[in-house]
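Entry 12.
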Amino acid sequence: MKVKSLADLKKIKAEVQEKIKLREHGENADKMVQIKVAMATCGIASGAKDIMNFLIDELEYKGVDAIVTQTGCMGYCYAEPTIEVIVPGSNPVIYGFVDKAKASEIIDEHIIKGRMVDGVIPVTYKTIDE
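Predicted 3D structure (tokens):
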């Protein structure tokens, strides 16, 4: 990737920092807040890449130690961008129609204060254990 602007450089820095954080904390990931951003074609077309970058920046700004990763399609194409939030000791929660305002609310309320916010997609699947 050619660096053509300061924004390009910041983007590269954020991507590298997330990869380093994931490597450093990979063994202890289950003890950290994890946010998975659906980055299949439908998610990217709906703005998931911008949401992922916003989450990385906002979590760093607010001093929240979390791992942000991308994942493939979660099957909720109608509700993109979607993110899965995993707080240690709690069941994973999937949020749909996530814009920057909703992402900020999820960080403030769900991740920091432990309170659910509107926008949860109900679980529509069963695990192999059930």
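Annotation: The chain has a mean pLDDT of 86. Strands lie at 33-38, 66-71, 83-86, 93-95.
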